[in-house]
Input
Amino acid sequence: MRPRELLAPPALAATRLLRRFRPDGGIRILMLHDVPISQRPALAALVAGLKAAGTLLDPATARRRLEGEPGPGGVLLSFDDGFASNLEAAETILAPLEVRALFFVCPGLIDLGEAEQRAAIAANILRGQRPAPEGLMDWRGVERLAALGHTIGSHTRDHLRLAGLSPDRQAEQVGDAARLLASRLGAAPDWFAYTFGDIDSIDRSALAEIGRHHRLCRSGVRGLNTADTPRLALRGDHVDLEASAVWRALTVEGGLDPLYRKQRRRLDGMVP
Ligand SMILES: [Zn+2]
Output
């Protein structure tokens, strides 16, 4: 058992106790990636639990709430990178429960041939940390997601890390992706998620470029989104489907939020 798993039960109990005194009306955006078959039962249990609790928001409602419409908060699901397993999860887990989610894709990678795409996934997405599990959805898959009522967002053109790129290359990664997605889907997406999601993977000029093309930008910096959260600095909570249910509950219920206070402040400071 990993050390963090030992700490999860008491931390979860403390989080639930605190919530009783400070009910949160904000929006939590969960962040998932590829969902191999071995992780589908955990995803199915998570989605069914959130659905039964009545806390799931669809992307359109979440967007209106984030833009100021009054109403109860909730949880929004998002999937990064556009792996083929995302479509399978949408068909087999989300569709039967009538759950709508956000899917962030990289249009430049979708267009690559099979061998080039595998190389790009290994180099740009997984960066040698694990072997490429599978290929990406093709455009028919992306269009199928849209037809199922899901919302497609941009995740840069080629899944490059935006921080530190020249402004020209940032404009290419953000602007080209918006144009490619608009030509396929009829309109540039409202939503963007920057690659890798951590605070060191974004900078001021990249966020300014994102703001030229999109209304909302989700990070991977943990926290609850409220009416005061800048729309280009939305918090996102990575969910580890291989972790124990208690650890997953801790992350989903905001138990790790206090550890990201400084990062949230840094992110807000980059918003143009
Ligand atoms: Zn990604």
Q: What stands out?
A: DSSP finds eleven helices and seven strands in the chain. The mean pLDDT is 92. Residues 36 and 85 are 6 Å apart (CA to CA).
